[in-house]
Design brief:
single chain; 119 residues; 3 helices; membrane; transmembrane; iron; oxidoreductase activity; Cyt_b/b6_N
Length: 119
């Protein structure tokens, strides 16, 4: 699991694992759906149901249209007005020599913050 004694090999291994894991899970889900579609599901009570309930095409088109409209509105917001939902405190130019007065650390970092401010 560790991949080596140094942090570099371990970090590379876990990065590769966490990058590939969603694709592996998605492939297994598609494979599961293919097998389920091919053989059908099992009923624990043993009652065979020969009625086939398929999802009407209307629902597929309606969901696809809703997804497309949502994606289009999100892209419109992102591309044409990216600063609409931003915080106004992020827009002034940064001054590396002066910390803005509204920025304060959590209470457990106050001693370090005080030491840095006194320098």
């Amino acid at each position: 699991i560790w991949g080596g004694f140094s942090v570099d090999a371990t970090l590379s291994l876990f990065f590769a694992f966490h990058f590939l894991l969603p694709f592996i899970i998605a492939a297994l889900a598609v494979l599961h759906l293919l097998f389920l579609h091919e053989t059908g599901s099992n009923n624990p009570l043993g009652i065979n149901s020969h009625s086939e309930n398929h999802l009407p095409p209307y629902f597929k088109y309606k969901d696809a249209l809703g997804y497309f409209i949502f994606l289009l509105s999100l892209m419109t917001l992102t591309l044409f007005s990216p600063d609409l939902l931003g915080n106004p405190n992020n827009y002034p130019l940064a001054n590396p020599l002066n910390t803005p007065p509204h920025i304060k650390p959590e209470w457990y970092f106050l001693f370090s913050y005080t030491i840095l401010r006194s320098i």
